[in-house]
Design goal:
The protein has 448 residues and is α/β, with parallel strands linked by helices. It is built from 19 helices and 14 strands. Strands 2-1-3-4-5 form a five-stranded parallel sheet, with helices on both faces.
Amino acid sequence: MFNILLADDKRNIIEGLARAFKMKKEYQVYLAYDGRQACEILKNEPIDLVITDLNLPYKNGQEVLKQSLEVDAAMPVILFTGYGTVENAVQTMQMGAYDFLTKPVDLDYLFTLVERALSGKKVHRQLRELLSQEQHNQGFAAFFGHSTAMQPIFDILSQAAPSKANILILGESGVGKELAADAIHALSPRKDKPLVKVHCAALSESLLESELFGHEKGAFTGAHHQKKGRFELADSGDIFLDEIGEINANIQTKLLRVLQERCFERVGGEQPIHVDIRIIAATNRDLKKEVEKGNFREDLYYRLNVIEIDLPPLRERKTDIPDLALRFLHEFCEENGKKLSGFTPKALYALTNYDWPGNVRQLRNCIESAVVMTKHHIIDIGDLPASVVPHEENSLTLPVGLTLKEMEDRYIQMTLQQANNNKTQAAKILGISRKTLQRKLGENDGII
């Protein structure tokens, strides 16, 4: 059930929309007849999506949009008006609106738009449920986040997971490609079937062939027994081929046949073995360039890349770092029997502003080290690896003679700049509530 806020001062329009949404039986509808009422509902109710008229009494649709994004930076907000202009559309989209429609509204198109907007939230909700299961805490924590960089990933996951289509996961080392495969499998109809994993770069050609396809007794020296391969073991489920860009031409040819015909023979065997599998492959290589160089078969590339998921590096989703760090903190506190309250503002600032070349894996290792080594009740900057601690050029230099109020003002502005003007993120770094930050900003620049 998703909670939708409808805001319009025209009762016939808003109540007609409400009836249409209630017929879908998957939406809980909240009604607001002016902007002030809409903002109050946003503060007090767990709203998933907002549909608002641009011209509202007391507070207009742009103010409702601003309030929505302050509550949840990933909140889809659809604005409509009978006085739509290109300038209005451009302005609201720049402010973060999901889409902009003009009246009269096409209901079928609106329902499609809402379903698409909520698809990311749907898979995010499913991932939350997976995170609540103790056995999945470690695996899915890397996919928990509200950053704009992750929303398209949730959208693709929600559409790709239930399908039978092969999936190619791209991304730098440490971004969580294997965890993405875990999530795809867990969210699919195949979740109760096997998810078999093969790390292709870790095996020689002969070993990899035997691992993938199995072998018959006596197929080669040392083959004392028949062995089922990973494809056979994955029947009715998924197989994850990590570092697919490392396999050689011979294995590529045999893999292509499996993709085309869904059958193979064991090494040394003649009996065809038919399987029902979905392949999820991953690589940190640019396979298009490998195809151009002749290192990777073009036909295999297109067979694997039916659906592509390109995971963003951690440096492009920095607003997720505080939540990720806290989840890893809880995980390692439980594992090591410790009770830590969190992070100091300095430690959180350092974590948020580091570029994390090793991505989520590096962040997780960093938090594990800090939890194990700290002698305090809270993680401070001294508990973090030296490489993570900001260098002198990232520090704030204040001249002698400033008042405490002026020093505070400068530090707040620097923190806001480092948080890309995201007030929620800045408040987390500063260790204060968002309302307190707004009050302080109101004292400085008139923002209420």
